[in-house]
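Tutorial handout. Part one gives the primary structure; part two gives the three-dimensional structure as tokens.
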Amino acid sequence: MRTLKLIGLGAAIVIIVLWLVTELKHIEGQIGFVVLRALSQDSQRSQLSAQACTVTIQPGQSIQQAIDQVSPGAVICLEEGVFEVLEGHFFDLKITKAPLTLRGAGPRKTILKNAVLRIQGLSRPLEDIVIEGLAILASDTPGQIPFLVEISSAEVTAKSVRIGTDALTAIEPRRAAGILLDSKSILRVEESRLFGLHVAIFSDAGKIEIQRSLVYGSECGVVLAGGPQEEFVLFNEVRLTANGIGLIAAKGVRMRMQRSVVELQNLGFVGCGFLETGSSLPVGAAGEGILLQGQSVLVAVESRIANNHSYGVAAYLKRCGFQEDSFTGRVELINTAVQDNEQGNVCLP
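Part two.
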């Protein structure tokens, strides 16, 4: 009798352990990003000072002059404070040499206000430009600045940065785009936030890695237009939250999404229907977590796509409510939860 009781107790313990494992996996999907972000913040402080400053600039001094005068390989450090020209006006910063590092004191300490950063025309394009530890913020006045960062023929790492509007209270659509990337460029975004924009990231067939970052409060989260060559995009521990639409991919874009979350799209935003790109991107999209067009390929691993206003994952097809059938790609959902999306979880061929 005692043996039977012990067997029963052992079975109960096994059931409880299995239940706890299941619950912990579910909880990890919701708070793992927060934990990782908290751990990464400590490492950021030491990493930002790993390489000595070549020159240090204070608010009121010219960043462009420093960029023009230093040699390739320099580290330009920006002190704590707000860098701007005149209130209500924007200014251009051009980087045309590499490698180069532009480093702030921290994303909430060093602020470039109404700045347009252009990284272009590099003679040695695959040497890294590093932008770290600062914020690039536009006024919330619509239409004032077309974009905040433009990357052309360059390899750029944006680490521990904030890119967005300086307020999330504007009623009018925010016309500023965050990062624009051409087909000859490579972009890495790490431990950063993009928010309050028209498009957080727009890529025309460039290669992108986004890791441990948050994209939120924008009309369009990430827009991958594709182009004549294949575009590869990696999302690793990324949150696409509360945008008009989370992710649009067209043409032959190949994407891998792992340990990421796509949730709560279309909270009062207009979506991506008025995007003027010249590309054959979907129009009228709003509320989808992920929308796929053309021959785009998505592999999602250990991710969660939930609570979006429209479909969780949708293809640009008539059966999904769009004007035509224009998706011939592929979707793989591996250990990925697609749930509680209002229009439906998945709409694919």
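Part three, for discussion. The chain has a mean pLDDT of 79. The CA atoms of residues 61 and 83 lie 8 Å apart.
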